[in-house]
């Protein structure tokens, strides 16, 4: 992401899938966020300005960012990340694990 940051258009696209807007995309534990919040908290910025800042400072974004046509996951969550694996593949993996445990 640092080498090829998201564009403002891409960030706006991701925002369509969020429940809490910009808050869902921000890594509040990052150094970049800590520094920015000392001067102008991103939550207090107008949306257009916040999107621009996120595009210019990719360190503010939670990682990984995974999305499809219906869902968005920002930040690592082992349980939620599985929802992006097709169901048939999850079933096969579970069957293989069960066979391995029985052996």
From TrEMBL:
InterPro entries: Arsenate_reductase-like, Thioredoxin-like_sf
One Pfam family recorded for the sequence: ArsC
PANTHER family: ARSENATE REDUCTASE, GLOBAL TRANSCRIPTIONAL REGULATOR SPX
Membership in a protein family: Belongs to the ArsC family.
The protein's name: Negative regulator of proteolysis
Lineage: Bacteria, Bacillati, Bacillota, Bacilli, Lactobacillales
């Amino acid at each position: 992401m640092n080498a090829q940051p998201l564009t403002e258009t891409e960030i706006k696209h991701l925002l369509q899938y969020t429940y809490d807007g910009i808050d869902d995309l921000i890594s509040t534990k990052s150094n970049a966020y800590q520094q920015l919040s000392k001067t102008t908290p991103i939550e207090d910025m107008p949306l257009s300005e916040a999107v621009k800042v996120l595009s210019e400072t990719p360190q503010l974004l939670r990682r990984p960012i995974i999305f499809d046509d219906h869902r968005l996951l920002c930040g690592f969550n082992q349980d939620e990340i599985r929802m992006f694996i097709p169901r048939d593949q999850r079933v096969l993996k579970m069957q293989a694990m069960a066979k391995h445990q029985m052996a």
